[in-house]
Amino acid sequence: MPSTGFVLFDTTIGHCGIAWGARGIVGVQLPEGREMATRARLQQRFPDAAEAPPPREVAGAIDDIVALLRGEPRDLSDIALDMDGVPPFHRQVYEAARTIPAGATAAYGAIAMRAGKPGAARAVGQALGRNPFAIVVPCHRVLAAGGKLGGFSADGGTTTKRRLLAIEGVSATQDAVRRVRASTPGFGFDTEAAVAHLRAVDPTLARVIDAAGPFRMELQTTPSVFGALAEAIVYQQLSGKAAATIFGRVRDLFPRRRVTPERLLSVSEARLRGAGLSRAKLLALRDLARRTLAGEIPTVAAARRLDDETLIERLTAVRGVGRWTAEMFLMFRLGRPDVLPVDDYGIRKGFAVALRKRELPDRQALERRGTRWKPYRTVASWYLWRAADPPARRD
Q1: pLDDT (tens digit per residue) in 63-90
Q2: pLDDT of 329-380, one tens digit each?
Q3: Beta partners for 142?
Q4: CA-based radius of gyration for the chain
Q5: How many Cβ atoms from other residues are within 10 Å of residue 232's Cβ?
Q6: Distances (CA, A) of 292 to 196, 224, 226, 255, 295
């Protein structure tokens, strides 16, 4: 397969490579652990290619690949591939695989059907195992029977495959579910793969992970978004002990100590203030109650179906609920994988400790570094809290 040039480029999963010829891209290389190894592998695959700046079309393909690996929606099916040296059946398999959109998967058998070879699932697996166009031909989206991950020929094997699927929001394979349950209960993503990803993309954070040990963040279950936010409002700007005392007194005002929107609006201001609530918190709780009764606050089930930013927008409409409070809800109540509270003092302090800096970083610096950690910034945040307060801050 003739080629004229290649280049390496940085992504959230490490340095990838791409090679091109006169008719389009002839190969894409996933990271080989170190940049030097990735370059050597690309040179081995395409000995006639010289490292060079990419032409406009290839540069556009690189931009789309980088964006996709950041978790952004991108359609790579229009990228021109040179398949002149690809066997006919393999070409049919690759063209069929390119029809699978990001965030979706298909079985080997289904790809065999699309390629016009029913019953050739094993041959499809062999063709995908020789896929020269990784990511652009999304072989990571093709699964074995029963939703099992199946094989993956890139460096890292199925761990890499699982990571690519997680970036695109896919974590519901049987294999992934088993691993999630075996690692950290309650999370809808593979926490072991998340830690492996963070180690691979950020050596500085890897040192923090080594010092802190296994990921042990625990989720706090809640029967309602109203209840979780009511508790968060009471706890704002108070020590844990003082807040627990006040919240206990508030709960004592209600039958079976159950705070509901209807009951909260029916209790007098004097009794709520007598329990220790400030005027500002009382107004915030009543605004929360009214919005809940008006249907503006989603149920827990509905909240799980909303994307992060939409849910944050809904929650921060409540008086006294800022972005930080909403982000804590996403992280500790819903177990969302990719939340980075850039205004949190502990996270900024942990980031400064990790980088051995005396001054706290600004939010822009933290956001820039955080792009490496996608789509597992929640896990990165937990480790930064550990760096800020090594004994135990938020187990």
Answers
A1: 999 999 988 888 898 899 999 889 999 9
A2: 999 999 999 999 999 999 999 999 999 998 998 989 999 999 999 989 999 9
A3: 106
A4: 25
A5: 22
A6: 40, 10, 7, 20, 5
User: CA dihedral defined by 34, 40, 42, 47, rounded to 10 degrees?
Assistant: 170
Q: Are strands 14-21 and 24-29 parallel, antiparallel or unpaired?
A: antiparallel
How many residues in total does the chain contain?
395
- Active-site annotation, residues: 344
Give the helix ranges, DSSP H, for the chain.
35-45, 56-69, 88-97, 108-114, 121-129, 158-167, 174-183, 191-201, 203-212, 225-235, 240-252, 261-266, 269-274, 279-293, 300-305, 308-315, 323-332, 345-355, 363-373, 377-388
Backbone CA torsion sign across 157, 163, 164, 169: positive
Residues of the chain with pLDDT under 70: 1-3, 146-147, 171-186, 390-395
Residue tagged 């695109």 (tokens)? 168
Contacts of 60 (CB under 8 A, 6+ apart): none
Q: How many CA atoms lie within 13 A of 287 on its CB side?
A: 14
Contact 388, 347 (CB under 8 A): yes
Question: What domains are there in the chain, each with its CATH number?
Answer: 5-129 (3.30.160.70), 225-332 (1.10.340.30)
Residue 194 is encoded by which pair of tokens? 């998340």
The reported pTM is 0.56
272: Cβ contacts below 8 Å, ≥ 6 apart: 250, 253, 282, 285
d(CA 357, CA 160): 32
Q: Which two tokens stand for residue 181?
A: 């349950």
CB 367 within 8 A of CB 340: yes
Q: Which element (helix H / strand E) includes 8?
A: strand 5-11
